[in-house]
Amino acid sequence: MSRFIFLLAFLPLALNPVGLGFAAPERLIINGHEVQLEHPLLALEGEAVAGAAGAEEEKGKGLLAPLEELSPYLGAELRREDRGYILRFGLGEEARLPQAGLHLQAGVSYFPLEELAGLLGARSLLFPDSVYLFVPRSELVSLSYSSAEGVVRLRFSRLAPLELASKGRTIEARFFNAVLGIAPRTSRFSQGMVKELELLSERAGQVQLRLELSQAGRAELRAGFSSGGYELELRLASDGGDGSSGPGPGPNPSPSLPILKLKRAEQLRLKPWLSYHYELRETPAGPVRIYYLLVEDYQAHARLRVALPQAGLGGLERLERMVAAQGGLCGINANFFDPVSNRPIGLLIKDGALLLPPYGHRAALGIDLFGKAVIFEEAQPPLIPLREAVTGGPRLLKDGRVVLDPKREGFSEAFIQGRAARSAIGLGAEGELIMLIAIKDRGSAGLTLEELALLLQGLGAVEALALDGGSSASLVFRRGKDLRAIGGREIAVGLVLIPTR
């Protein structure tokens, strides 16, 4: 069984009829591979479609493309509206296609090829019998598998057309116009639905994922744009069962995509491996402003270090001063602290020295001697010695699932469900580090901790910990020589990211 997944809506629309003229080129080549479209390219009456290649005024002129069919090959998702279509592409960018530019032929919606390519960052080259399109490739940036949920999650830099096939115990997903941004791999598992997972680049412009299952099964596909790119989720199920692929997700099912609707997103590349993001998301209580830093393969480039005020324990200081004092690239606030004594609450380790003991069963973030970050329960620290550690709470994600347990960590239910400014740190399956805060003020509704957990999960985190929130929520990053701060209260403890070279 084989099928193409494009996630498009086909609805009737009153469009401009096409006046056919010269024959359009019959061949369409995208990034060197010929694509067979069910509906051909068309040429408008009176428009020249042939001519010298490279003549700028003739390039793609007069050609119409079947909109629904071609858009996915160019890395876009199509959504219908009353006055036309909306294209979504890249990191969730949107472009409106006006109805005046649409044409109808035999019930198929057509749009000018050159204009469509230009919107999506593609280049076109016209020959008498062929059209060549050069499209930015979609890069696979992360892959994870949860054996407990029976879910494989992938994140691409942009939409990649997918062919999904299943036969017996084998499921294959072939992504077109795609490249690997992570290393090929073959992984074997002793538990769960998947026995073997193989990821490879089959040939130029294609990425293949093969799953060998423990029993005959199928994959249910979910996909959509997030701030980190285009995310797909393959939920595995037995062919002979009730749709379950093993133990259920429990009381806290964990969708892979954010439940908060993205309204606007901005990104700033600070380093090849460090980026700053701003998002405006819609919640049931209104819009909320979210800021986060994404560090790719953080162990290869930097180290997380605990930062204290110049006055030491019991002192308070703004986060940007802590970052500046350590020569850091960025930072986030950490421990809760007593507002009377200003002393931090919970486990605190700096430069290998234990400064404060654990506080009950709260969760903590530790940095081992090799620079690896790990989230754990204070009462059950990792076996390897820790160089740094801070306490937050509650724990938000474990093995990719939401694991809020406020009573165990000594938090009230009101603290969990109430809306507030939030601060959190997340770890991805491929070595990503996420530092995130959400704002609560007159124009921003804040988040519940459950929303915070789902948001981090949607950004690709598989482990996540909440930190001190409210007015303490602070994020700082360096742009050039300047430090930019979001949130400004003095705090007791910070986490600073310091470059290793």
Structure characterization notes:
The structure is a single chain. With 501 residues, this protein is mainly beta. It folds into three domains: 133 residues, no CATH class; 101 residues, Immunoglobulin-like (Sandwich); 239 residues, no CATH class. Helix content is 8%, strand content 47%. The protein is built from seven helices and 43 strands. The strands form ten sheets. It has an eight-stranded antiparallel sheet with strand order 24-25-26-37-36-40-34-35, with helices on one face. The longest helix is centred in the last third of the chain and has 10 residues. It is globular and about 80 Å long. The N terminus is likely disordered.
State the strand order across the main sheet.
24-25-26-37-36-40-34-35
Note the overall shape: globular
- Report on the biggest sheet: 8 strands, antiparallel
* Number of contiguous helices: 7
Strand percentage, roughly?
A: over 45%
Low-confidence stretches: 1-21, 46-61, 241-259
| Protein structure class | mainly beta
Radius of gyration: 25 Å
Average pLDDT rating: 82
Quick one: how many beta strands? 43
Number of domains: 3
Task: Kindly summarize this structure in a few lines.
This protein has 501 residues and is mainly beta. The radius of gyration is 25 Å and the shape is globular.
Fold topology:
Layout: E1 2-5, E2 16-17, E3 27-30, E4 33-34, E5 42-43, E6 63-66, H1 67-70, E7 76-81, E8 84-89, E9 93-98, E10 103-105, E11 108-112, H2 113-119, E12 123-126, E13 130-134, E14 138-146, E15 151-156, E16 162-167, E17 170-176, E18 178-180, E19 185-188, E20 194-203, E21 206-213, E22 217-226, E23 229-238, E24 261-271, E25 274-283, E26 286-295, H3 298-301, E27 302-307, H4 319-325, E28 330-333, E29 348-350, E30 353-356, E31 363-368, E32 373-377, E33 386-391, E34 395-398, E35 401-402, H5 406-409, H6 413-417, E36 422-428, E37 433-438, E38 440-441, E39 444-445, H7 449-458, E40 461-467, E41 475-479, E42 482-486, E43 494-499
Parallel strand pairs: 2-10, 3-13, 14-18
Antiparallel strand pairs: 1-16, 3-4, 5-6, 6-11, 7-8, 8-9, 10-11, 12-13, 14-15, 15-23, 16-17, 17-21, 19-20, 20-21, 22-23, 24-25, 25-26, 26-37, 27-43, 28-41, 28-43, 29-30, 31-32, 31-33, 34-35, 34-40, 36-37, 36-40, 38-39, 41-42
